[in-house]
Structure formats: C-alpha cells, structure tokens
Amino acid sequence: FPPDSSWDAAYERELQTFQDIGDAGEIWFGEESMIRIIKWLEKQKVPHDSPVLDIGTGNGVLLIELAKSGYTNLTGIDYSPSAIQLSEKVREKEGMSDIKLKVEDFLAPSDELSGFEICIDKGTFDAISLNPDNAVGKRKQYVRSLCSVLKSEGFFLITSCNWTKEELLNEFREGFEILEELPTPKFCFGGRIGNSVTALVFQRK
Questions:
Q1: DSSP run (H or E) holding 33
Q2: Which GO biological process entries does UniProt record here (predicted)?
Q3: Which pLDDT tens digit goes with each residue over 117-161?
Q4: pLDDT digits over 90-99, tens only?
C-alpha cells in the first residue's frame, strides 16, 4: 500500500479518469471480495435496513453493490476528500442518491458516527497498520473507534492482505470475538505469490 500522501494522489488520478471515461478505477481486492461479503450478509439474513458502515470506502463501489443487493441504510467514510468526491460521482452515475458519504478520519470519528450494526473494512486496517508513524498506537485507536461506532453484538467484516487470522484475532481480542473465517483465494494484487487474503467476521461482545 502506498503511504498516506499518495492515497490522495491515487484517488485524484481515479477521479480524473472517472470524469474522462466513467470508469470507477481500481477495486481493491477485486470483485470476489465484495461478493463474499454480500453472500455472508444474505446467509446471515441481515435485515436490509440495518445500518452499514464501509470504513475507508475509496471509490464507493462496495456500497453500490450493497445497494443493488437491496441494502438501504449505507454509509461510507474515507479520510481522503478525493476518495469521497470519486465515490459521490460513482453514486450519481449509478443513481444511488441515498448512500451517505462523509469525509471522516476513522481514528478520530465524529459523534454522529455511531449505532452501526455492520462495519466493513477492505484494506483500511492494512493501510493504517503500515503507517510508519506509531502504527501500534494507531491500530489500538482503530479498535477503540470500532467499539464506539459498532453496536453491541454488531458484526465486523475485515478483509486483509497483511495479517494472518491469528494476528487479527490478537489485534481485535479487546471487545470482539470471531464468528467465522470466510474462504478466500490464495493470491491478491496481480497474483503476487504468497500474498494471501484473510477475511474474518467478528462480533462485538
């Protein structure tokens, strides 16, 4: 993952591309990770009006897919204003005006960010973990933020390229228990070997 400053640059480029050709750009982790998340929610019979938060929504494509699958109470946050601009454009193109999008730093969430029954993270925890500036403290703050925005007994679905199941269990041991591990392909990012994806579902205690 690129360091923080280049995220904005990456989204700036995607924003430009979207304006030029109407293409939403890179989908981190690919299509199959979105399908995996939606299948799990459906299998779990999560009510379609449950409040869902996409942490680090990027181009917002996961929210679009959730909306197409019938979910109606969707919020996406990203600390990159360019990412939120991009996801707003994607939202408009798809005619999904009821998806809520906000510029938010998840490590310092605003008060109105609360009461979610489902939180989803594809790669944001990874990116925070790689921050050279106090990564351990930032990971602990991430877990605190998650506890504050997710309702008791709510579900947290995380897809990670950097952490094994055991490491994630350790990171989220305060306040969360694992429900299940979701099956994932063994490679990610252009099939770079040995870079497996871990997808876990936690429940807030």
A1: helix 30-43
A2: methylation
A3: 999 999 999 999 888 889 999 999 999 999 999 999 999 999 998
A4: 999 999 999 9
Domains of the chain plus CATH, in order, are 6-20+27-147 (3.40.50.150)
What six digits make up the tokens of 106?
Answer: 């998840």
87 φ, ψ to 5°? -65, -30
Q: What is the pLDDT of residue 10?
A: 73
Phi/psi class of residue 143: alpha, beta or left (left: φ > 0; alpha: ψ in -120 to 50)? alpha
> What distance in Å separates the CA atoms of residue 28 and residue 106, rounded to the nearest whole number?
19
Pair of tokens at residue 104: 């938010």
Residue with tokens 């779990």: 44
Tokens of 56: 């680090």
Contact indicator for 99, 135 with CB cutoff of 8 Å: no
